């Protein structure tokens, strides 16, 4: 029987759960709006309820453990969610202990961006690489680093908080309190803010027409740029320059085989890519300039399948070795191909 993991992606707005095979295929999936202001007991109750739903759908499933991606800061080794800004009332919650006792199964915990990095590395855009940096650009900027075949954790598992690396001395204050964070100038939120400042309600611009004269979002900017709107194209160019500067830092710091860009703004990756690339060419030292920068492949499934792999691929490095050792490899390439196809949806 195929080994499965229960996987959860705990977000500030949505809690998603799935049963996942070791090849990355999602067998069945459920979700619920996170009771983010109700405290940790309520949300843990939701996790237990969703697990019950999933197991009821597959009563014969051979579930070998539970993998969870949750918002940082958290300590993956101790299994403790420290104090995520998006979840009220969570302070040093021993999530692994609580769920382990409830289910009698091994539980593994990882920062949500790290879980997504693992997903893209093992099943998505980063398959067959030894080192990659995954960058998610949406409301904020997060990331995960795979270095030499392992997720890079650092002290207390807090490494690769790349949204808060300082890349300028100017601009709006970041929610972390500092000025000039990568996230503060290059997130989707920052792009929307620049677009809103550039236009005015009722000015007839395409950006304001798309936003129904409300605040302009990054999604509106991408949509207007696709329609050839000059202001939107200029905003995209400025955004791509900031991303290029941040990515150049990541190339110099981690020397990955690949940078994978995910998050909501990856929907505009094709528009952003030429200026990101030009900025890297201009700023990176020659030895780093040929590193591919590619869009993520798994969308919002990356975190779920990455969390599942914490259990199903425990102790295994990247794809090639794991494929050779994986118990399910006897199922052959057909199952793996099906898994890839499913996870690309
Ligand atoms: Zn910051």
Automatic annotation (TrEMBL):
<dbReference type="InterPro" id="IPR043129">
    <property type="entry name" value="ATPase_NBD"/>
</dbReference>
<dbReference type="InterPro" id="IPR049874">
    <property type="entry name" value="ROK_cs"/>
</dbReference>
<dbReference type="Pfam" id="PF00480">
    <property type="entry name" value="ROK"/>
</dbReference>
<protein>
    <submittedName>
        <fullName>ROK-family transcriptional regulator</fullName>
    </submittedName>
</protein>
<comment type="similarity">
    <text>Belongs to the ROK (NagC/XylR) family.</text>
</comment>
<dbReference type="InterPro" id="IPR000600">
    <property type="entry name" value="ROK"/>
</dbReference>
<feature type="compositionally biased region" description="Basic and acidic residues">
    <location>
        <begin position="325"/>
        <end position="345"/>
    </location>
</feature>
<feature type="region of interest" description="Disordered">
    <location>
        <begin position="321"/>
        <end position="345"/>
    </location>
</feature>
């Amino acid at each position: 029987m195929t080994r499965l993991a229960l996987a959860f992606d705990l977000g500030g707005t949505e809690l998603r759960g799935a049963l996942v095979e070791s090849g990355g295929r999602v067998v069945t999936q459920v979700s619920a709006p996170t009771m983010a202001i109700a405290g940790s007991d309520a949300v843990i109750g939701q996790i237990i309820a969703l697990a019950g739903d999933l197991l009821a759908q597959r009563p014969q499933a051979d579930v070998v453990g539970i993998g969870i991606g949750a918002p940082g800061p958290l300590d993956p080794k101790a299994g403790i969610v420290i104090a995520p800004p998006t979840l009220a009332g969570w302070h040093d919650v021993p999530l692994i202990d609580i769920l382990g006792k409830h289910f009698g199964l091994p539980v593994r915990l990882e920062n949500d961006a790290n879980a997504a990095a693992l997903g893209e590395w093992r099943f998505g855009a980063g398959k067959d690489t030894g080192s990659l940096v995954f960058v998610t650009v949406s409301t904020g900027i997060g990331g995960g680093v795979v270095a030499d075949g392992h997720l890079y954790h650092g002290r207390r598992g807090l490494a690769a908080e790349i949204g808060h690396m300082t890349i300028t001395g100017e601009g709006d204050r970041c929610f972390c309190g500092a000025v000039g964070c990568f996230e503060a100038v290059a997130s989707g939120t920052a792009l929307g803010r620049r677009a809103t400042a550039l236009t005015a309600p009722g000015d007839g611009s395409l950006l304001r027409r798309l936003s129904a004269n409300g605040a302009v979002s990054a999604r509106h900017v991408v949509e207007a740029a696709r329609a050839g709107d000059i202001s939107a194209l200029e905003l995209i160019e400025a955004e791509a320059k900031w991303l290029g500067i941040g990515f150049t830092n990541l190339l110099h710091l981690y020397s990955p085989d690949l940078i994978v860009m995910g998050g909501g703004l990856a929907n505009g990756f094709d528009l952003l890519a030429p200026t990101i690339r030009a900025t890297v060419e201009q700023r990176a030292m020659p030895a780093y300039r040929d590193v591919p920068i590619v869009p993520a492949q798994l969308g919002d499934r990356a975190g779920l399948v990455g969390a599942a792999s914490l259990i199903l691929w425990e102790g295994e490095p990247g794809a090639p070795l794991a494929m050779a050792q994986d118990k399910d490899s006897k199922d052959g390439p057909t199952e793996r191909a099906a898994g890839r196809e499913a996870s690309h949806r």
